[in-house]
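User: Quick sanity check before I run a bigger batch. Here is a single chain. Can you write out its predicted 3D structure?
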Amino acid sequence: MRLHRLTLTAFGPFGATQEVDFDALSSAGLFLLHGPTGAGKTSVLDAVCYALYGAVPGARQSPGATLRSDHAPAGLPTEVQLELTVGGRRLEVTRSPAQPRPKKRGDGFTLEKAQSRLRERDPEGDWQGLSKSHQEIGEELAQLIGMSRDQFCQVVLLPQGDFARFLRSDAEARGKLLGKLFDTRRFAAVEERLAELRRAAEARVKSGDEQILALAQRIAQAGGPAAAEAGPPADRPGEPGLAEAVLEWAAIARSAAREHLDIAHAVVAEAENRQLDARRALDAERELARLQQRYAETLRRAEALEERRPEHDCCQEQLERARKADRVAPALELREEAERDHRAASDALDRTRGLLPAELADAGAGQLAQMERRFRQELGGLEAARKAEARSARIDEERVRLNRDARADDEIVREADAWLDGWAATRADLRRRVETAQEAATRAEQLAAHLAPARLRLDAARRRDALATDVQDAREALAAVREQALAAHEFWLGLRERRLRGIAAELAAGLVEGEPCTVCGSTGHPAPASPGDGHVDRATEEKALDAHRSAEEARARAEQELGLVCERHLTAQAAAREEAASDDPAVAELRSLVDRLTGDHAEAHRLAAGTHAAREALAAAEREHDERVEQRQEARSRAAARTSQREALDREQAGLEDHITAARGESESVAAHADRLTRRVALLADAAEAVRAEQDTAQRRKEADDRLSDAAFKAGFDTPQAAAATLLGAAAQRDLQHRIDAWQAEAAAVADRRTEQDAREAAQRPAAQPAAAESAHATAEWLLREAASARAAARDRCAELDRLSAQAAEEVRRLGPVRLEYERVARLAGLTAGTSADNERKMRLEAYVLAARLEQVAAAATARLQRMSSGRYTLVHSDARTGGRRAGLGLHVVDAWTGSERDTSTLSGGETFFASLALALGLADVVTEEAGGVRLDTLFIDEGFGSLDDQTLDEVLDVLDSLRERDRSVGIVSHVADLRRRIPARLEVVKDRHGSTVHHRL
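Assistant: Done. Predicted structure follows.
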């Protein structure tokens, strides 16, 4: 990789655009980048790193830092452009960070996104764009360079301070730096992966052991005292021997549990015998107590029966008298019924007599019936008078109806006369509406014939005006392409003339010694012409000819387009004119004409639309005229007929009135007189019936009294009242019979129980003690239940121990392969982590790989260190352990003067500088080889030369100068004044209050 040119704009301390020509600086092989402190020497290297990787070295990529120069004006954007050759390709990369820029509109700033651009120069010298994507450019450059940003900063931008610290640092710090440079993350990933596998396997083993211990805890809980006799194993999860200890302890617990079960069986058998004896004693005591209680109860019931004997005799006597009184009950009921009927008939008679006139208050049934017949005869004679009165009422209703119809017909006649008086004017107005609508329809057709052409002319005028602008544009475009075609033609003719003037040199370029010339045929070419300044070759001429032809084709297309536009414009112009007119009407004039015709046509069309309605209105009015004339004539005819009807009704009503007056008497009407007679007939009939009913009920009551007296005497009662007092209802008699039956049943039961022999014998024995027997039986049952419960618990304990022991054995068998896998993975993880006894040097896998790389770096650095130290020092790799730290990344220096080997931290300041320089150069060679052999043609060395004496400085510069043998260029970044004298090619960075600038000193 070789750098050619670097352009910085508003970057870091550089406020304006600065350009660094690495080709000019690299021509001497060794150049100096110097300047005062803070001028921006390191910023030049930062710009190179930013152009390649889009970021500055990590130490200067602090959060919140900006790459934009504070000295730059607001309108100048920050940009870095680097031109380099890598992998045989000439590339140009341009990057701009995210930065604020002034808004295009208004005040203030807006944030501009970061931008990147990559170009490549082709063999003809032209730049071709490759990409503008940050990701694509980064991937392309990283693939070509073959190094990450950290590797590039350590290999190309050699920071001597970092390598001096590398020499003095311990193995851990060296491992971190070498890990970044050689990308040994895959080996660290292997270590981590094995550690993860070991942790996972260990977790599985511990999980299995925890399950086994959990089963042991459950065995301890299930075994109870049997398991407590031998304590559970004290091993912890993950410890060897845990599974075997748990299985052995479970076997002991099972054996103890079986012994406890055998003992429980014997205890249960003894408890069952004791419970059976207690049960028999309890049954005997309970039977004795029952018989004694039964005999005592019999004595109590006999005493109570004797106490209730008088009550029993009284109930029996009362029941017998009630049964005798039952024979008098029908006569009593008959007497009461006759009394009720007589009382009701007397009340009805009193009410009826209160409605009769005073002279009839004491009349008998015969007199009342005779008066009823007389009134009925009078009522029958009023039937004809009632019919005459009804007909007279209907005649009055008919007269009212005739009067109502007369008023309605009079109203119809008046309305018809009023409407017919205005008929002539109405008919004339409707006929005018019809004529107006017909005229509007004719006018609408005429306006429609003028409106369509006017609209076409308006559209044509609009196209005409639009096409006029297109014509002007086409003419201007044609003029432009004509000028271009003329210029291209002149340019082509000029090139052609220049080529013809130098055609001899072009022909001479094709001459071959010994072959005949295509012009003269000679095989000798003593003085072939050579091209002069400004020579034009055939390709250039043909390119100009192609441009001339393209311009001519564009001119022809423009002329054709102009002709088409002009033709469309003339067509539209002709369409906008009237047939006989020669002037072009304006669009506004045609629009006004179209608007006026549109309005007139709409109005005429609106009026014409009412033609049908007007005709319908005229026809409807004529039909209404005929109907009203007919209605008036019919009303007059009906009035004449009503007059004759009214006269006939008057004559009929006069003949009916005399008969009605004679029939109604003093009443308001015949109907009212008939109504009064009807009420009198009904009242007399009710009174006669009430007299007869009262007489009948009195006779029946007398007969009932006689029968009741006879029945009471026969039943043995002195009077009917005595029989009624003794009479009881069926419910009362049943109650007495139930009480008598209950006493007799109780007497029979007591007599039976007195004959029981066992009860009498039990009564003669001492009192029974069932409570003591029950207590003894309860105690025996409790002991049996406890024994049975203990036996069931022992049986369940044995079954649970068998089940849990089987689970534990199965878990141990399942955990066997897991434990073997853990032991294998743990052995590999310990070996790669350096903690295994098999790893003698206690080196991690990554450290082992880095040790091999460090050995290569030490070998490459020794070749230059010996030249710088005049053959005194040699760098060697050491894998010995120091203190308690791990081995593998030690670095020692061998002093040829003393023959001793010591640590690099014991070197002096100057020795440390050239040792670190040699180490940096050796590391660059190894990393380059590791990255795929990409050649690094440009290197930078930063600071540290001030610590060297003159002789050592000369030797170091000789080593650096030797790098030019492989066409390398080395840039030294330093502010040491003596280097300006020793190195003629310099790039000076000058700082100023307006920003730093760079100057080439060649």
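The chain has a mean pLDDT of 76.

User: Great, the batch can go ahead then.
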